[in-house]
Design brief:
By secondary structure, the protein is α/β, with parallel strands linked by helices. The protein contains nine helices and ten strands. It has a six-stranded mixed β-sheet with strand order 6-7-8-3-9-10, sandwiched between helices. A four-stranded antiparallel β-sheet has the order 2-1-4-5, covered by helices on one side. Strand 4 and strand 5 form a beta hairpin. The longest helix has 18 residues. The chain is globular and about 55 Å long.
Length: 266
């Protein structure tokens, strides 16, 4: 940490335009050990923010801070060093189809010279048990549901021992039971590993359970940035409309008495 860059992640006056403006003077920050959710309607720049945090995109204007460094003008070689600290769980899972669940997670450890083979096996077993997919260790990604592939992707990301993990819509396109399971799993990882994390999501239940702070994007602008509990109190009509729509379309609450894994593809 430096006086100049006290926050682990920070957007300083970020502008990004494709066919139209996607981010307009966006400002927010994430402190170490904190979880920040980025929410808003489709197409408002949520995934674009993650792209800037991973170095896949460069801002047209403004500065991007990652791991207490100004990474705005970093070369690809410099980004490789940063990506050892910051990893991303893609919506698709981005798993290797030809490798089993266990082999996918083991892949993250291949370059770890400080681990012998037994260490690696032990770490993979511990991670797969932590995310409740040890029973699926010999299955291939194609055999798994969307939710299970996400769980494997999370285990693989954590195996690299990052300081920060970025989640892109972790609960989208999964059933309510699997969504609840992923939420509980992510909360457990937050509490046990103290990772800094950013969660792009449409799932306001996940936001409320997991996030310390919220960034609300609307037409490229950050129209709310603050503690999660304060979002409901906002008098911004666009935020209130978003929250109202979520309540209208949310399915009836059900008490999830038990979670029983089904390892079949959806």
């Amino acid at each position: 940490m430096t006086d100049e860059y006290p926050h682990y992640l920070e957007f300083r006056h970020i502008y990004k335009t494709f066919d139209k403006p996607v981010l307009v003077d966006a400002n927010f920050f994430v402190d170490g050990g904190e979880t920040v959710a980025i929410i808003g309607r489709s197409g408002v720049g949520k995934s674009v923010t993650l792209g800037h945090m991973m170095g896949f995109l460069k801002p047209d204007k403004g500065r991007v801070i990652v791991a207490h460094e100004d990474v705005t003008d970093f070369t690809e070689e410099e980004w490789r060093r940063v990506r050892k600290k910051v990893t991303m769980v893609f919506q698709s899972g981005a798993l290797f189809d030809s490798l089993t669940v266990k082999e996918n997670v083991l892949f993250s450890l291949e370059l770890r010279e400080d681990y012998d083979e037994q260490n690696k096996e032990d770490v993979v077993e511990g991670l797969l048990k932590m995310v409740d997919i040890w029973d699926a260790r010999d299955a291939y990604p194609a055999d798994l549901s969307t939710g299970y592939r996400r769980a494997v992707a999370i285990a693989r990301a954590i195996a690299a021992q990052p300081q920060c993990i970025l989640y892109d819509e972790p609960t989208t396109m999964v059933d309510p039971i699997m969504s609840d399971h992923l939420a509980r799993m992510m909360l457990r990882l937050k509490e046990q590993l103290k990772l800094t994390s950013v969660v792009v999501t449409h799932d306001l239940d996940l936001m409320r359970r997991l996030a310390d702070k919220v960034v609300f994007l609307f037409k490229g602008h950050v129209i709310f940035f603050g503690p999660t509990g304060d979002l409901e109190k906002s008098d911004n009509p666009d935020i209130q409309e978003f929250l109202t729509m979520d309540r209208v379309i949310r399915p009836g609450d059900q008490t999830l008495l038990a979670w029983k894994p089904e390892l079949t593809a959806e």
